[in-house]
């Protein structure tokens, strides 16, 4: 919200000429975003660390399982430093994190970095496919609704609201029931071949299409009332060309501000979607890690999601500033 207010203020009070004198690349803005990004990463890891510690149940009890011979739990606590005060464990974790050490999995006894690296690409593949489909659906719905009048606009707005309101796991279960169990067009689970990616991609893309479609349509409606668009219409340019070449082009810029939230939503939704469809990826290892209180693995997944959010938001904020010269003078 703060960034959006900055952009609005810059648009109202900074001329392109003045902005151009400040340079094309917004170094000050980059440094501020990097500082904010570090705070976001720290806050995400800190919150996750203490929430996991507050969950009832002893990590030593879970790791011991059915074995209950004398001294076992004490040995587990000593091995992993679980007998230390929580604040000391937290500081030790931050110290290792600064050096790039994500720790070792309590359950798998493997470096957490290796575990994440082995599963992350399946999740990235799903998230990218869902993002692409979501953007295509959002653009198609927005353009179609504006070309077909108020009835189509109201209908598509309702559809977008449904897309954003229905939980991801419900959509996944419905698609599984219809297309896997009943029609048997797609596999029920796994990640073998392109057809195993279709239903998870649709499941994850629909909320993205709903949110992005609403923003695009509202932005396009405002753009259609701008003087430069009215001037283009007055020259006799076809309505479809005006809509796609001019209104859509300018509507994409405000929609870019949602990219960080959309990517974060995709990663969070991917965890649920992978669980529903039995796909390998960060979702499956997160579910197992939370169930077993495998704290280092859960913290690594949280850190990865926060890092992706920060990187995408920072890059798009910089791109937004470079594209719109009026923002280069904002502080």
UniProtKB/TrEMBL annotation:
GO terms for cellular component: plasma membrane. Its main location: membrane. InterPro entries: BPD_transp_1_N, MetI-like, MetI-like_sf. The chain crosses the membrane at residues 34-55, 126-146, 158-185, 197-216, 255-277, 297-323. Residues 120-320 form the ABC transmembrane type-1 domain. GO terms for biological process: transmembrane transport. Belongs to the binding-protein-dependent transport system permease family. Keywords: Cell membrane, Membrane, Transmembrane, Transmembrane helix, Transport. It is found in: Cell membrane. It comes from Nakamurella alba. It is a multi-pass membrane protein. The keyword Transcription does not apply. This is ABC transporter permease subunit.
């Amino acid at each position: 919200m703060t960034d959006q207010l900055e952009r609005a203020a810059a648009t109202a009070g900074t001329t392109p000429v003045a902005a151009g004198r400040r340079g094309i690349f917004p170094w000050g803005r980059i440094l501020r975003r990097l500082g904010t990004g570090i705070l976001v990463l720290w806050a995400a890891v800190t919150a996750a660390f203490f929430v996991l510690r507050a969950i009832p149940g002893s990590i030593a009890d879970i790791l011991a399982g059915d074995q209950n011979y004398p001294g076992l739990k004490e040995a587990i606590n000593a091995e992993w430093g679980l007998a230390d005060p929580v604040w000391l464990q937290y500081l030790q974790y931050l110290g290792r994190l600064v050096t790039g050490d994500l720790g070792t999995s309590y359950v798998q006894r493997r470096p957490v970095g290796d575990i994440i690296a082995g599963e992350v690409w399946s999740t990235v593949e799903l998230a990218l496919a869902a993002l692409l489909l979501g953007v295509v659906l959002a653009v198609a719905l927005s353009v179609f609704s504006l070309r077909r009048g108020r009835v189509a606009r109201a209908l598509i707005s309702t559809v977008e609201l449904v897309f954003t309101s229905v939980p991801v796991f419900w959509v996944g279960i419905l698609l599984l029931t219809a297309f896997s169990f009943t029609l048997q067009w797609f596999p029920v689970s796994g990640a073998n071949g392109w057809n195993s990616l279709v239903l998870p991609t649709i499941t994850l893309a629909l909320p993205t299409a709903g949110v992005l479609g609403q923003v695009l349509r509202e932005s396009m409606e405002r753009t259609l009332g701008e003087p430069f668009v009215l001037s283009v219409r007055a020259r006799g340019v076809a309505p479809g060309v005006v809509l796609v070449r001019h209104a859509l082009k300018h509507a994409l810029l405000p929609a870019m501000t949602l990219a960080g939230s959309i990517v974060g939503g995709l990663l969070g939704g991917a965890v649920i979607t992978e669980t529903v469809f039995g796909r390998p990826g960060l979702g499956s290892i997160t579910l197992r890690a939370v169930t077993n209180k495998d704290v280092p693995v859960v913290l690594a997944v949280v850190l990865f999601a926060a890092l992706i959010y920060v990187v995408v938001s920072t890059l798009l904020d910089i791109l937004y500033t470079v594209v719109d010269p009026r923002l280069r003078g904002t502080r």
